[in-house]
Write a structure and sequence with these properties.
CATH class of the largest domain: Alpha Beta
Largest sheet: 5 strands, antiparallel
Order of helices and strands: EHEHEHHHEHEEEEEHEHEEHH
CATH topology of the largest domain: D-amino Acid Aminotransferase, Chain A, domain 1
Radius of gyration: 20 Å
Number of helices: 10
Structural class: alpha+beta
CATH architecture of the largest domain: 2-Layer Sandwich
Number of domains: 3
Length: 325
């Protein structure tokens, strides 16, 4: 039997220009390896400003977008791919842009009935001058991922984080400030509009920062989460609602906080291109549901073909014979 992707040319976009470049290179490598195991001809593209020229020359059947962060995940690259008419994985232009802008995403989610934290956008110099919310609270860039540039301000803190006004700050003039929700860090993968399961994340660092997410042994993932069944179902429901409200497609991951003392659950954000590294949550959740990494990657590509209207895998008589779900 022919390999599922035999005869298909897939460009894997990785690296990019954001602060999450190194993570993206790992996600891209893992996905490219899987695609080659599935029989595809793979072009590994370290995406830069010349992406349109590169793809015009390569002429791939579909792009697997493994970029993370600004430019690759916020609708910019998606707009280029739409202009070129190349089918691509994950969310479209609007959903990508909305999800990346935390303030706008929160407004849309709240209007759809999804429980989100309070707080809002503040000028970074105001945030550094005095507490804009009573501690404890969280300060984070409005349009970054992977917990880059995130600071926790606890009770008794003498002053706000001064890093937001440091000369090297590159994350914009406004920052998101939200009340700190005590309790557990949760994540829910959503695939084709349906929640997978709930992961409880136990970071080995002070909070679930970049090192905890991507460092070897940086955090412990417990699947399914050790929370009551009603909280499991609510976390899944909120994640499905958020996926739909933002107009997402393919695979996303929602991050949530659960105050298990007061039984309060809030959704923090939706990641439209979740990590595909060896320590990433979505592949782990898929595996828990019986879907191995290669089948997950295959499903993501099949979804891109179906939505791209490009005469997909099944139309060429090379279907895998089983979906990833």
């Amino acid at each position: 039997m022919a390999a599922p992707l035999s005869g298909h040319h897939i460009a894997v976009l990785m690296g990019g220009l954001s602060s999450e470049r190194e993570v993206s290179l790992v996600s891209g490598r893992e996905c490219a390896d899987a695609l080659e195991r599935l029989g595809a001809q793979v072009s590994r593209v370290d995406a830069g400003r010349d992406i349109a020229e590169v793809l015009t020359r390569l002429k791939p059947d579909v792009c697997f977008n493994a970029l993370h962060g600004a430019w690759g995940e916020d609708g910019c690259v998606q707009g280029v791919l739409e202009t070129l008419g190349v089918p691509y994985t994950h969310c479209g232009v609007l959903a990508s842009a909305l999800a990346m802008d935390k303030a706008k995403a929160k407004a849309v989610l709240a209007a759809a009935g999804v429980a989100v934290p309070g707080g809002g956008l503040f000028n970074r110099f105001d945030v550094a001058r005095d507490h804009v919310l009573p501690p404890p609270y969280v300060v984070k860039p409005n349009a970054e991922g992977s917990s880059v540039g995130v600071f926790l301000v606890f009770d008794g803190a003498n002053r706000p984080p001064q890093e937001v006004v440091a000369p090297g700050w590159t994350f914009g003039e406004e920052v998101m400030v939200e009340p700190y929700i005590a309790g557990l860090e949760l994540a829910v993968g959503v695939m084709d509009g349906k929640a997978m399961t709930v992961t409880e994340i136990v970071p080995k660092t002070a909070f679930y920062d970049y090192e905890a997410k991507y460092g070897e042994g940086g955090s412990e993932h417990i699947v399914p989460a050790r929370i009551p069944l009603h909280a499991i179902e609510k976390a899944k429901k909120l994640s499905e609602m958020a996926h739909a409200a933002l107009g997402c497609r393919g695979v996303t991951r929602s991050d949530l906080r659960y105050d298990d003392v007061n039984d309060v659950l809030v959704l923090l954000e939706v990641n439209t291109q979740p990590g595909m590294t060896p320590t990433s949550l979505v592949p782990e959740q898929a595996a828990a549901g019986g879907v191995d990494f290669d089948r997950l990657v295959l499903w993501i590509v099949e979804d891109a073909y179906a939505r791209g209207g490009a005469g997909g895998i099944a139309s060429r008589g090379e279907t895998s014979g089983q979906g990833a779900r």
